[in-house]
Amino acid sequence: MFSRFVDPSYWKAILLALPGMLIGLVFHEFSHAWMANKMGDPTPREFGRLTLNPLRHLDIIGTLALVFLRFGWAKPVPINPNNFRNPRRDIILVSLAGPGSNLILAVFFALLFRLLSYLIPIDTPLVALFKGIVGMTVLYNFLLAFFNIIPIPPLDGSQILFSLLPSRLSNALPWLQRYGFIILLLLLAFGVLWPVIGFPSVLFTTLIAGPEALLGGI
Questions:
Q1: pLDDT, tens digit (0-9, with 9 covering 90-100), for 103-155
Q2: DSSP assignment, residue 123?
């Protein structure tokens, strides 16, 4: 396991992936904050989260996990649903805003990759490096989008699911909130989630940006 940390190809893959993952995490949390503010809740603004400044969103442990595990997280945006004009609807919109922003970023960078490939058909080392970063930005933003819509706390999909379910089923929410993170770690450790988030991410990256976008490595 630890031998990969002395493998230059591992650090090359991290160099290519890290910018896209950081961009995706920051925009994800900012989008939650922006939508909550639009829906009438000033809590994210009061906590300084209505900004694209990475320092306001990134979690130290979550950022280190990006480097060493290629899986990480940012600080969740605090919200107060009591401030929403229509709490049931607005919680869904706020929850969708994060994954939605990642999908928008993925498509934007996919089109940028296509444009770069058209304008600069022959890669110099610097161009190849930049295109590798852009390609991985596409892939990891698709991964963030599909990962976060999984209906297991603390992911956004759980908020969407429980806002849509009848209130009589809400008794299951505290249990899931208590053990959700452990469940996610186990699913990741045993590779159960890869078919759910990895396959569609690779597929959409290939379809929109082209197969060359994946040459930086997964």
A1: 999 999 999 999 999 999 888 889 999 999 999 999 999 999 999 999 998 89
A2: -
Out of 13, 20, 23, 29, pick the active-site residue. 29
Res. 2: pLDDT tops 90:
no
The whole-angstrom separation of Cα 39 and Cα 81 is 10
Residue 197 CA to residue 142 CA, distance in Å, equals 8
- Is 212 a catalytic site residue? no
- Specify whether the CB–CB gap between 119 and 183 falls below 8 A: no
Closest Cα to residue 98, out of 65, 62, 134, 49? 49
| Position with higher pLDDT, 73 vs 105 | 105
Alpha helices in the chain (DSSP H): 8-38, 43-46, 60-69, 87-119, 125-148, 156-164, 172-189, 199-208
Tell me phi and psi for residue 42, to 5 degrees.
-85, 0
The pLDDT of 184-206, averaged and rounded, is: 91
Angle 154-152-180 from CA coordinates, rounded to 5°: 65
> Is the pLDDT reported for residue 70 higher than 90?
no
Count of beta carbons in the 10 Å neighbourhood of residue 129: 15
Predicted TM-score (pTM) of this structure:
0.92
Q: Which of 124, 123, 140, 193 is nearest to 25 (CA)?
A: 140
Cβ–Cβ under 8 Å, residues 200 and 146:
yes
